[in-house]
Specification:
The structure is a homodimer of 190-residue chains. Chain A is mainly α and 190 residues long. The first copy, chain A, is built from 9 helices and no strands. At the A-B interface, helix 6, helix 7 and helix 8 of A face helix 6, helix 7 and helix 8 of B. Chain A binds a DNA duplex (30 and 30 nucleotides) through helix 3.
Chain lengths: 190, 190
DNA sequence: GCAGAGCTGGACCGGACGGTCCAGTCACAC
DNA sequence: GTGTGACTGGACCGTCCGGTCCAGCTCTGC
């Protein structure tokens, strides 16, 4: 059983979403069976199909969206009290590194693992693009707030996104969060 | 059937490796069934287990290694005639963008898709790390060749790797190779 | 021509997969 | 108390999974 199984205090639907997000993130959409998932969420099959009529794929979309919202919150708190854009970006990378260590150094990006390895499905692709663009937009807003010129803000937001995704991958391969912590050094001074 | 199915002129073993590399890259390890794979490679099940006694997992390791060697060649030709490091990096990004377009704008990194989404297996993880470090080392050698100081070369090689991986992901989500072509602009002048 | 290794073709297997279905339970309105 | 709708528990289903096995077909060396 997953050691990060959601608490029974949560509703069945929330437990399903959280279990799905956690399991898909580490093993990918096709790597997680319905039985594993149901056991982790401590929910029977009937509940899954009650809350998510289309079964596994509906649940995956919900799990990816939930995980994306968590990421948006992480971005928001990282930049909230930062004196500069770069300082906020650094905080974000360090927070991600910490989460990566806590997760057992194997979690990947929840959206990529859930939606890219899923069925060859237009809904999945559209959802992934929408969620990723949400992350970039969130960073962009903070860049604006620090007074960066629009083209610079655009550049920085995209750069940070690409660095984090690439760094996440390398961190996973090396099973070390050091890569994530070193990312801010790669950003040019704004 | 995969439109990029390997030619029958190749040996059965090579056809298996190429089919596996192509299919895993787009659908992930667990997303490809043995029957799909065998149909694409036009090989019977007996041949697979003759050439790869451990079946799917052996084949995945071989496919990832083959795909990684292709990438090393791509890096080598991109930097071979380049006047500067940055020019070589730009050529590499453009070549990747072209391949991405040819693939149907959905291919991911062959190593991540094959080994990260595979079984929770120490061999897979070790192989992924080894292959990625091979890519970084190859870029590092070229950086050396252009006379970059060791710490700068290290920095640049890691940066290029992270950019390409992150860019690849965003290109996939947006189904556009523009992201890959824009990557060189994100590298600081060395 | 013959022996034997290397390789192929495909039937077959047990189990796990995602999905369906419905009786049972519960909280709550009336 | 009774009716109602939301939710749960789990038996059950057909399909496809990865994997096994072996008969038979080459190809090669002699």
């Amino acid at each position: 059983m997953n050691t990060r199984s959601p608490s029974l205090a949560l509703s069945t639907k929330d437990r399903l979403i959280r279990s799905a997000a956690t399991l898909f993130r580490t093993r990918g959409y096709h790597g997680v069976g319905l039985n594993d998932l149901l056991a982790d969420a401590k929910a029977p099959k009937g509940s899954l199909y009650h809350h998510f009529p289309n079964g596994k794929s509906d649940l995956a979309l919900a799990a990816a969206t939930w995980a994306s919202d968590e990421m948006l919150r992480l971005i928001a708190v990282s930049f909230a009290d930062a004196p500069t854009f770069k300082s906020g970006a650094t905080t974000l990378c360090h927070k991600l590194a910490k989460l990566f260590d806590l997760s057992g150094k194997w979690d990947g990006c929840p959206i990529a693992a859930t939606l890219f390895e899923g069925p060859d499905n237009a809904d999945f692709r559209a959802c992934a693009q929408r969620l990723y663009d949400g992350w970039i937009a969130e960073v962009h807003d903070h860049a604006d707030r620090f007074g960066l010129a629009p083209d610079i803000a655009d550049h920085q937001a995209r750069h940070l996104f690409v660095l984090i995704q690439g760094g996440w991958l390398l961190a996973r391969a090396r099973r070390s969060s050091d890569v994530l912590r070193a990312l801010p050094d790669l950003i040019a001074e704004a």
